[in-house]
């Protein structure tokens, strides 16, 4: 089956610094990836996605990088703000359109 | 437009009881999935429904079941509750399999 793992369960950054959250996936056939943000008491919220035919995609203050060679996904948050404090999940979609989620990385922004 | 709505937000049940959770997807979304979230376990897939048919099922015992109605609303049921069933149950909908999910805020189930 799939396994989606995160390198670090927790990450603390200073406000204003850039954050990088990493994710490893195991299925080389996965063709679509999403990063979600989950704040306390809420459901996961879509941040950004990327398809397997791309290696980089940028949004507002966020960038997702995909390295298919090593099956690695990362989320970069520029100028991290206190409101960015949350748990971040990566998800991969297999060829059966089924999504698999990692356990999450907890990001804490230090003012 | 309205997001994914889950009811109730909180539930406390005793072991052995059963529980039904409800989910109303985003209007137009025909696919509804359910996930169980526990600390340290991440999101564990329960099942997915599309047009009233179960399309995929995760690795959960038969005590966990679900259904989808013609208006795409979905319910999940857990019978003979165990302490380990305490979790946040998330419902998510999507337009088709080509897209990612929109999640509801979840139902927090506590089994005592």
Layout of secondary structure:
The complex is a heterodimer of chains A (111) and B (112).
Chain A: E1 4-5, E2 10-14, E3 19-25, E4 32-38, E5 45-51, E6 56-58, E7 62-67, E8 72-77, E9 86-93, E10 99-101, E11 105-110
Parallel strand pairs in A: 2-11
Antiparallel strand pairs in A: 1-3, 3-8, 4-5, 4-9, 6-7, 7-8, 9-10, 9-11
Chain B: E1 5-7, E2 10-13, E3 19-24, E4 31-38, E5 42-50, E6 53-57, E7 64-68, E8 74-78, E9 87-94, E10 102-103, E11 107-111
Parallel strand pairs in B: 2-11
Antiparallel strand pairs in B: 1-3, 3-8, 4-5, 4-9, 5-6, 7-8, 9-10, 9-11
In words, what does this structure look like?
The complex is a heterodimer of chains A (111) and B (112). By secondary structure, chain A is mostly beta strands. Chain A is 0% helix and 54% strand. In chain A, the strands form two sheets. In chain A, strands 2, 4, 5, 9, 10 and 11 form a six-stranded mixed beta sheet that branches. A five-stranded antiparallel beta sheet of chain A has the order 1-3-8-7-6, with no helix packed on it. The mean pLDDT of chain A is 90. Chain B has no helices and eleven strands. Chain B has strands at 5-7, 10-13, 19-24, 31-38, 42-50, 53-57, 64-68, 74-78, 87-94, 102-103, 107-111. In chain B, the strands form two sheets. In chain B, strands 2, 4, 5, 6, 9, 10 and 11 form a seven-stranded mixed beta sheet that branches. With 112 residues, chain B is mainly β. Chain B is globular and about 35 Å long. The termini of chain B are far apart. The A-B interface holds A 32, 34, 36, 41-46, 49, 89, 91, 93, 96-104 and B 4, 33, 35, 40-43, 45, 48, 56, 90, 92, 97-98, 100-106.
Distance between the termini of chain A: 40 Å
Strand content of chain B: over 45%
Radius of gyration of chain B: 13 Å
Strand runs of chain A, count: 11
Q: How far do the termini of chain B sit from each other?
A: 37 Å
Derived from helix and strand composition plus strand pairing, the structural class of chain A reads mainly beta
* Low-pLDDT residue intervals, each spanning 5 or more residues of chain B: none
- Order of SSEs of chain A: EEEEEEEEEEE
- For the residues shown, what is the average pLDDT of chain B? 93
- Major beta-sheet overview of chain B: 7 strands, mixed
Instruction: Report on the biggest sheet of chain A.
Output: 6 strands, mixed
Number of strands of chain B: 11
Order of helices and strands of chain B: EEEEEEEEEEE
- The averaged pLDDT of chain A comes out at 90
| Oligomeric state of the chains present here | heterodimer
